[in-house]
Design goal:
alpha/beta, CBS-domain, three-stranded mixed sheet, 6 strands, about 20% strand
């Protein structure tokens, strides 16, 4: 089976998409991350769900997770609202990692190798012009591997 057969349509966000909207998309579709496209619509990086959490959770809780225990559940549920007017580009690292990419003819083992090498549970499948055909998640890849 080739990457083109495993690739599924996958949502993207623009660098100017509000983070609250990106977080809702992640949560609403149970996604490990989102493919970020630049102003020209070209895919260039992944926004992992963990990065969204990093932006929403107070720094003091990240530095000392035991401090999170003193915050009651009602207040904890409101943290994502503190993303405010921030956009995706503001939540990306200063030097975002390159988008993990495979071509449509990549094998299951090649896809797995890219995921393992980049430590990213999401790989984009791009055509020869750099257009997004779809994406393959770790979950979908493992389902395919165990089905074989």
């Amino acid at each position: 089976m080739k990457a083109r057969d495993l690739a599924a349509p996958y949502p993207t966000v623009r660098i100017d998409t509000p983070m609250v909207e990106a977080a809702r998309l992640l949560a609403g579709q149970d996604l490990p991350g989102l493919i970020v496209v630049n102003r020209q619509g070209e895919p260039f990086t992944v926004l992992p769900g963990t990065q969204v959490l990093r932006m929403a959770i107070p720094r003091y809780c990240q530095e000392d997770p035991t401090l999170a225990r003193v915050i009651d559940e009602a207040a904890a549920d409101l943290f994502l609202r503190h993303l405010g007017d921030r956009t995706v580009v503001e939540c990306l690292p200063e030097r975002p990692k390159a988008l993990p990419v495979v071509d449509p003819n990549a094998t299951v083992l090649e896809i797995a190798a890219v995921m393992a090498a980049t430590a990213t549970p999401l790989v984009a499948v791009l055509d020869d012009r750099g257009g997004l055909i779809g994406a393959i998640t770790l979950d979908a890849l493992l389902d395919r591997m165990f089905a074989a």
